[in-house]
Protein: Ubiquitin-related modifier 1 homolog
Organism: Euplotes harpa
Amino acid sequence: METLFGGEDKVEFEVEDMTMGQVIRHIKNNYLREREELFIQTDANDTSDKDYDTVRAGIIVMINDTDWELLDTIDYKVQDGDNISFISTLHGG
């Protein structure tokens, strides 16, 4: 994953009143350096004007060591002090 983010393995930033979907959009717009398709799920047929993104299959999202699938995924409201981790299960073959 570090390759996608210009060699960075950790970024910290302030969020105020954001959902995880909005945090992922912020990360995409401000920190993702290459190969967006390896991190962001895209749908060429989606013409909605949404203000969020989600991660592609194969990316595990942990919020305070809890799988985001147990918390509301993209709709989870990020809280002060939350620690969010993205773990890739994708590998070459």
User: Anything to note?
Assistant: The chain has a mean pLDDT of 85. Residues 4 and 37 are 10 Å apart (CA to CA). The beta strands are 59-63, 66-67, 84-88.
